Amino acid sequence: MPRQSQNSSAPSRHLFYEDALALVIGSMLVSTGIGLYGYVGLLTGGTAGITFLIHYLTGAPFGPVFFLVNLPFCVFAFRNMDRRFRRKSLVASSLVSIFTIVQPQLVHYSKVNLPYSAALGGVMMGTGFVVLFRHQACLGGVNFVALFFQEAYGFRAGKIQMVVDVMILMASCFIVKPLILAGSVMGAIVLNLVIALNHRPGRYTGA
Known about the structure:
The chain is an all-alpha fold. Helix content is 74%, strand content 0%. The model is unreliable at 1-8 (pLDDT under 50).
């Protein structure tokens, strides 16, 4: 069998339409998990968790609040991330905001089990994050910080996010019922395990 040339084995940059599809798919997965969590009253970590707290306390719509909560982290991204990453992350954050506004009009749940919803929502959001990460995008907030430390210092993004998420969830113990808190912690663990197992620096060659 002829030996492949060095250029043929080198990873190539994702094409524009591949990035565009990935942003839509990843954002849709994340927003669907968020919608499931919102239906059963669960929380998650990161900026989405902060947005859930504001949503539950004030009744403000999730989508616009999520976009506003992310704005301070955009300053960090503009100082530490490249332009292409910032641009795609802003598009992904906007898509999640739009999907979370539109989806309640399109998807309705008649009966859901809380532990299963926590696990399924965690899997969907975690998978959505991995799709976005693989195409050099994220949803801002803690994602920016976790990816920055992974790229700069080699810390695993999933582990960093897991620590931050658990801290946010524990801070909410005075706001939500113990059963909701337990389900939320379970969902955060599932979400971050999906990221930790599927997004490791140096393991994957897709550009």
